[in-house]
Design a protein that fits this description.
The chain is an alpha/beta fold and 255 residues long. The protein contains eight helices and seven strands, in the order H-E-E-E-H-E-H-E-H-H-H-E-H-H-E. The chain has three domains: 30 residues; 91 residues; 100 residues, no CATH class. Helix 2 packs antiparallel against helix 7. The radius of gyration is 23 Å and the shape is globular. It starts with a helix and ends with a strand.
Length: 255
């Protein structure tokens, strides 16, 4: 009699184990978007690598890539990819040129296989604690037409408001004042009116498509044409000048 009870118990356990496996496999099949998260740091800019780039909640449904020139950098969460520095320019050192290159000019080849890409500055990896695959998937499903999901700039209203904030530039020494002044004059002479909402560019989600890649490449080119360093002085301007459809742009409070 005891043997029969044990056999029945074993059958019940096996049934629920098989059911659990089927549910998990079905759930995995529902992960219909391939999404990568990437970041970078060159020259240990602002000593951000000393803050531990692994201090965030890891989600196995994302793939993580980190680009750097730092030979000794190790991680248990990121795929570390070593790349050479780009040549410096008149107004940017090699570390910063390389940062802009991987942010705008060339989406790294490892990311070509993904449907969507999340960008995060290395100094902002803690923001990754706010996100999960399921939440990002829901955002995408609810906004199929959107190509760029961003985080609202919390301080500045628009490009001119940010560009004319001398305190930020003087504090961080992150822009040439003369070049900034020429850019502000250009915008005012054009009577430029910003229609794209002003965003932070440390954290965003994009659809991995040629249209976005081409726009981002123009942001990079304009930075160097105008000899500016801060991409927030350029980004919305480029989108406006290329008649970016506002319906394909969305501010996400969740970010």
């Amino acid at each position: 009699m005891i043997k029969i009870y044990l056999l029945v118990l074993l059958v019940i356990i096996l049934y629920y184990l098989i059911k659990k496996i089927k549910i998990e496999n079905f759930s995995n099949k529902q992960k219909k978007y391939k999404i990568a998260i990437y970041s970078y740091n060159f020259g240990n800019y602002r000593n951000e690598l000393g803050k531990n780039i692994d201090k965030f909640n890891y989600d196995k449904n994302f793939d993580y890539y980190f680009y750097t020139d730092q030979e000794k950098l190790k991680s248990t969460k990121w795929n570390i990819i070593k790349v050479p520095l780009r040549p410096r320019t008149e107004h940017m050192n090699a570390n910063r040129v390389t940062t802009k290159y991987y942010k705008f000019k060339k989406i790294p080849k490892e990311l070509n296989q993904y449907d969507y890409i999340i960008h995060i500055d290395s100094g902002r990896v803690k923001y990754l604690n706010k996100i999960s695959y399921d939440k990002i998937e829901n955002i995408i499903n609810d906004n199929k037409e959107v190509l760029f999901f961003g985080r609202k700039q919390p301080v500045h209203k628009n490009i001119l408001h940010e560009a004319e904030s001398d305190w930020h530039i003087k504090k961080h020494k992150n822009e040439n004042i003369n070049n900034r002044d020429r850019w502000v004059s250009k915008l005012r002479n054009e009577n430029y009116k910003q229609s794209i909402p002003h965003v932070e560019l440390c954290f965003y989600l994009i659809k991995n498509c040629d249209y976005i890649k081409n726009l981002f490449s123009k942001v990079y080119d304009k930075l160097f044409t105008e000899k500016l360093c801060r991409d927030q002085f350029i980004f919305c301007y480029i989108l406006d000048k290329n008649n970016f459809d506002i319906n394909k742009f969305k501010i996400i409070k969740y970010f």
